Amino acid sequence: MTRMLFVNTYVEDVAASRTFFGALGFEFNDAFSDENTASMIVNDTTTVMLLARPKFQEFILDEMTDTSRSREMLLAVSADSREAVDTLADTALSNGGSAWTDPQDHGFMYGRSFRDLDGHVWEVIWMDPAVAAGDGPPDR
After folding, report:
1. Distinct helix (H) and strand (E) counts, the chain
2. H or E segment to which residue 105 belongs
3. Among 125, 1, 118, which Cα is nearest to 51's?
4. Which string of DSSP letters, residue by residue, matches 10-64?
5. Which end of the chain is less crowded, N or C, counting CB atoms within 10 A of the terminal residue's CB?
6. Domain residue spans of the chain
7. Residue range 92-114: average pLDDT?
8. Strand, coil or helix: what is 93?
9. pLDDT tens digits for 27-65?
């Protein structure tokens, strides 16, 4: 069985978030998008639902995390190369995102992170394909 993953999070401005993530190369499923929701396609089995705050509140029983003070989760997305990590992170920063941590370089794995327009943290990572496939221990 192939499992699908649907991440739901809130945004202040659905249209602005759609523009931001569109600039990063993500596409959207318009059948599940409207003025309160942007259904962002990560791949065939992963979708991130960007919901306006009032819409998101309908799905939860407690408070939304204040992303200026705390983290509920980190979202990590892969890239095909170290250069692709830099391109995606730099594009996010030039389109209104903000830096979060310093780049992490472990030789076999490289990553950078940024906050989106709503302060949610996204990590962009590349891992040596041989290490990712389990063909040997990481070169540390």
Report:
1. 4, 9
2. strand 104-105
3. 118
4. EES-HHHHHHHHHHTT-EE-GGG-BTTEEEEEEETTEEEEEEEHHHHHTT-SSPP
5. N
6. 1-60, 72-132
7. 96
8. helix
9. 999 999 999 999 999 999 999 999 999 999 999 999 999
40 touches 28 (CB < 8 A): yes
Extract the tokens encoding 1.
Answer: 């069985």
Instruction: Give the three-state DSSP class for 118.
Output: coil
Q: Find all residues with CB under 8 Å of 77, minimum gap 6, and list them.
A: 42, 88, 122, 123, 124, 125
Question: What CATH fold (topology level) applies to the domain 1-60?
Answer: 2,3-Dihydroxybiphenyl 1,2-Dioxygenase; domain 1 (3.10.180)
Task: Show the tokens assigned to 94.
Answer: 């030039």
> Residue 14: is it exposed, middle or buried by C-beta count within 10 angstroms (0-12/13-18/19+)?
buried
pLDDT at 3: 93
CATH number of 72-132: 3.10.180.10
Closest CA to 88 of 110, 106, 107: 110
